[in-house]
Amino acid sequence: MRNFILFSTIVALSACAETQPETASQASSDNLPEAITTAAETTANTEPVSLASVLAAQPEEVQARYVYRHPAETLTFFGIEPGMTVVEALPGGGWYSKLLLPYLGDNGTLIGANYAHSMLKLFGFYSEERLREMETWTSDWPAQAATWIADNNTAISAFTFGSLTPTAAGSADAVLFVRALHNMARFRDEDDFLQAALTDAYAILKPGGVVGVVQHRMREDAPDAWAMGDRGYLKQSYVIEQMQQAGFVLEDTSEINANTLDIPQDGDRVWRLPPTLSGSKDKPQVAAAMNAIGESNRMTLRFRKPTT
Fold it and tell me: Residue 273 above 60 pLDDT?
């Protein structure tokens, strides 16, 4: 709570710059270069919006999670700045997207990257109708994301991991994997979805580009079977190994998203904790215990694509 109060104080002291963007640019995976070019050619005369002002403008329910998600510290640690082209893995309903869009600004680009469609089938809970709807995600998501921020002109596009077009190579400044790696590792016996995603991340990044990872973390002394991704957790050593095998260089680590109260035991899944509270919503005492722990213990890692 002390961190949250301090952050609120910093926000209050930050100046908010006004923008007057027009309509949001959108593109599917087939038009990634066009979307990026559109952003680069934008000539708005507005000053970039500060990250503090973006965070301060979010609804109360979003700000309430800053104490666990630390978006200001996290995005700063990853070096995200206005005007960048950023790939966000598994953007979903847009918790981070809604921060990135106004912050990246008129000269920036946000590219959503979703799981491969063949991987979605493995979850087992998607209906056939929903799976058919997800076939057009690369066009549907940019259209949806364009409605999230009023008068936002950030270019928006999307692709699915394993299907990156060669023309998109070397176009992004950063790729963010925020709580997105565990499911790809979970299904590694079915297909190497994780390797395909990291290969695409390496390809789309410019030389010297950054990969930012925030991931539910299992303690290193726990059995490997507890950290296979199916419980939401991975070991930090495993993530670093996979990233290095993909060609990235570990540049720095941070404990800004750590939670030492989260000590998973045998059978514990990350979704037992808030905000999901799986298995305890109708058990007040259990839910109270999970809320007392808070959100998961998370590693925060910064990797870089070599320049040569």
Answer: yes
